[in-house]
What we know:
By secondary structure, this protein is of the alpha+beta class. It folds into 2 domains: 3-206, Cytochrome Bc1 Complex, Chain A, domain 1; 228-349 and 366-413, 2-Layer Sandwich (Cytochrome Bc1 Complex, Chain A, domain 1), CATH 3.30.830.10. Helix content is 42%, strand content 18%. It has 15 helices and 12 strands. Strands 1-2-6-3-5-4 form a 6-stranded mixed sheet, sandwiched between helices. Helix 1 (46-53) packs across helix 7, helix 3 packs parallel to helix 8 (195-206) and helix 9 (254-265) crosses helix 12 (330-345). The protein is globular and about 60 Å long.
Amino acid sequence: MEKVTHETLPSGIDLACVEIPGRHAVAIEFRILAGTAHEPDDALGIARLIQETIDLGTEKYDGRALSDAFDEIGASHGGWVGREASAYTCLVLPEFLERAIELHAEFIRRPTFPDDKIEVAVELTRQEWTALQDDAHSLADKLIGTQAYGKYLGRHSLGEPESLDKIDRKHLLDHWSETYHAGRMQVTAAGAFDTQHLVDLLETHFGGFGATETAGREHFDVTFDAVRVHHNKELEQQQIAIAFPGAARTGEDYHVQRVMLGLLSGGMSSRLFTEVREKLGLVYWVSAWGECPRGSGMIFLGASTTPDRCDVTYRTLLREVDRLSEDLTKEELDRAVNGLVAKIETQGDITRARCGQLAEDLFHFHKPMDRKEKIAKLQAVRVDDIHSYLDAHPRDALSVVTLGPRVLEGSKVAETSSTGGPQS
């Protein structure tokens, strides 16, 4: 039988873990509640630079030696930076769990941020930023995020060129010391381990790691900008991105929102694919998705089309959302729900998936949530619930970005052509 535990450790770490009998692996995530939204205004991009350089030199290891130490135990490890958090993940054999925790504690607690590694990381980030300007899909995603979310949540992990030029080792050390401590850590684990042994290991290696008081649980307000903005760029395919406020992960209608998105973009039988792409041939790519910063939610529609079809594609995307209130059938709804449940039940490696689910639960709900209850809520969604959701989240105030040679009807034109800079 699985054993789920949730407790705040004396060190300040918020821990949630699940023992899964029969698994010969352990997945663990160390989540620091500090992301791009927490960056100083004059050091945008610093969260990602910390993540890129934190394991390239510590008090005990240089970058190569630390990498070799992970390889010696066969650990699969990585990291990411988001709007409100940064995380370091690892999958390892149970017999090497202690060593894996020890190595993570080494670079999370005792990084040295070598100057030469910072210089390389900054230069690579500049190159990625330049490459972003030639990736129309990713650039449109950056532009709509900034416009829809506002100053803090709308920041991009690559930062901006003018801020990258100013960041040095002191900036990294200062921001790390302010945001990396046990009181801002959420640790989740799943797999084959003994919970008390895991607690003892975490306390041994992270005890005394800065402030123990809970911090970083606040959420940032979305400053939604309902405006249509066109960014001129010579492209063969025009990018369209539409955003409107949706349900928060903790909202009562979040499970309805998931089903609604499944109906729109849950596979090759979904409405956007069959109606907009297959029947009308309007788009090369089309999708609908949701994002949920803590305490809020956003719905996105996106498409890549030819410039001359930009206006009709825009209207058709919105029409397909509205049409869910008109002709949705129970059979179509059941197909979308079954697809969502199947993804939950078969989501990749079970240890990684359960660890990731626990991490999202802690982040949004501050406690583990029952998986069966989540599935039951999805299965309880009815056609009328979709209608009620659409009524509660009207599309009369939209944030819209187009990127390409054609100005969408009713749009204003950005002052800069494709860099995501100031708008008129």
